[in-house]
C-alpha cells in the first residue's frame, strides 16, 4: 500500500490528519492512502505555484530547457510503464495491457509532443500597414493553472494538461481524482527524483471535489482552471471560476454515436465498435454508446456485435488477456446498473447482458435494443458497458438520432461511400468525428467538446495555446507623434 503525500513548493507534505483510501475495485484491497487537503493546504499549494511563477525561472527558461525537462519526464515514465500500468489496474480496474500499452505509452508520446511544442510557440507581427510601426502579438504563459483530473485516464489526462501548461512556462497545481490518487502521483515522484522543475512549478494536492477541488478553483492565485470530468462538475467549476473571471477549459462527458450505413465494411466496423463500446467497461468519454444502424443491415450488425462482445475477456484487470475489467467504483457500478434497469423498465430488450448480479463490480457488456429515443438511456452519459442500438431508414433519420442528445464530444461514421461519409461527418453535431474508425487519437491533433461536452481544446498546438495569454506590444519608431500631427492640421487620421 502506498502512503501518499502532497507535493507543494518542492517538498512532500501532509496537510492535516484526515486521510482517504483508494481501493481496488476487483479485490477491495487498499491501494493507497492520501491526505484530504482543506482550504489551508490548497492555499499553500496555490501560493507556492504563484511564487514560482513570479520568480520566473521556469517561465523565462529557454523553450529548449523546458522541453528537455518534459523529455526526461517522458523517458522516466516510459521506463516505469509496467509498474504504472499495474498500479492503475489495481487502483481503478483498467485492464493492465490497456493501462500500459494505451494509456502510459500514450502519455509518454504526448509528453514528447509537448517537449517539442515548448520550442514552437510563437507570436505574430502585425505592423505591416505603417512601416515604422512594430506592432506585435506576444504569447505569454497564462500563470498559475489548476489542473483537475478524473479517474478514467489518470495519467494520460494529467499529462495532457501538465505537458501543455509546463511547455509554455505556467506553474501548476494538480488535483487527481480521489479514486486514482496513486496513479497520477507517479508523475510527481518521477519529477521529484530527477529534480526536473524548480520548486513550486509543479504542485500536487490530494482530496475530493469538496473541499479540495472547489477551494482550488476558487483560489485567487489561480489564473486558469483546466478540468476533465463530468458535465455536472464542469458546470459547477465554471460557476465558481466565473466569480473572478478565471479562465476555464472543460473536457466533460459524451454520448458518442456510431452511424453505420449498409455499405460499410461490416467486419472492420464491428471489430472496431466492439472495442469502442466495451474497452475498460465503457468508462471512456468517447466510447461508442449508441449504434445507429441502417435498416438493411440492422440484424446483421446486432448479431455481429453480440457475437464479438460475448467473447470479450472479462475479469481480473491484472491478467494480460483481460479486456473488460470491473467498474472503477461502487458509485460507478450503481450508476450504470441504475441506467440499465431504467432502460429495461422503459421497454428496452437486452440482446446481450442485461442481468447484473453478484456483489462484485463487474458488469458484463450489454447490448440494448428498442431503447426509447428520448429516454435517459439514449440521451444521458452512462459511463459503463451499455450500448444502445437504434435503426434508421435514411440520412435525415440517422442524423436526428445521432444529434438527439445535448452532448457534442465524438462520433463515428461508417460507409464506403466517402462523399456520404464526409457529408454526415460535417452534419454530426460533435467536435470529433471518425470516418471508418473509432478511438484514434494523436498528440498532434487537438480535441475538445461542444455543448454539454465542454469548452476549449486539448492536445495539438490549439491545446498548447489554451495556456497562453496574449499581449499586444506596439513600438512606434516614427519621428513625431502621429495624433499631434493630425490634430494640428495633418491629413486624414492614419493610426
Ligand atoms: P467527476 O466530475 O466526478 O470528477 C472529476 C474531477 O473533478 C475529480 O478530480 C473530482 O474530485 C473533481 N471535482 C469534483 N467536484 C469538484 C468541484 N466542485 N470543484 C472542483 N473539482 C471537483 O468525474 P469522474 O467521475 O472522475 O470522471 C468521469 C467523467 O469524466 C465522465 O463524465 C467522462 O465523460 C468525463 N471525461 C471527459 C473526458 C473528455 O476529454 N471530455 C475525458 C475523460 C473523462
Oligomer: single chain
Q: Order of strands across the widest beta sheet?
A: 15-16-17-14-13-19-20
Given the C-alpha coordinates, what overall shape results?
globular
What's the domain count?
2
Alpha-carbon distance between the two ends:
66 Å
CATH class group of the largest domain: Alpha Beta
The fold-level CATH name of the largest domain is: Aldehyde Dehydrogenase, Chain A, domain 1
What is the H level of CATH, i.e. the homologous superfamily of the largest domain? Aldehyde Dehydrogenase, Chain A, domain 1
Class per helix and strand makeup: alpha/beta
Name the bound molecules.
Answer: nicotinamide-adenine-dinucleotide
Low-confidence stretches: none
Major sheet summary line: 7 strands, mixed
What does this structure look like?
With 495 residues, this protein is of the alpha/beta class. The protein has two domains: 2-252 and 453-472, Aldehyde Dehydrogenase, Chain A, domain 1 (3-Layer(aba) Sandwich), CATH 3.40.605; 256-435, Aldehyde Dehydrogenase, Chain A, domain 2, CATH 3.40.309. α2 (63-79) packs antiparallel against α4 and α2 (63-79) crosses α6 (181-194). The protein binds nicotinamide-adenine-dinucleotide. Nicotinamide-adenine-dinucleotide binds at residues 148-153, 157, 175, 177-178, 208-210, 213-214, 217, 228-230, 233, 236-237, 251-254, 285, 381, 383, 409, 449, 453-454. Residues 148-153, 157, 175, 177-178, 208-210, 213-214, 217, 228-230, 233, 236-237, 251-254, 285, 381, 383, 409, 449, 453-454 line the site of nicotinamide-adenine-dinucleotide (NAD).
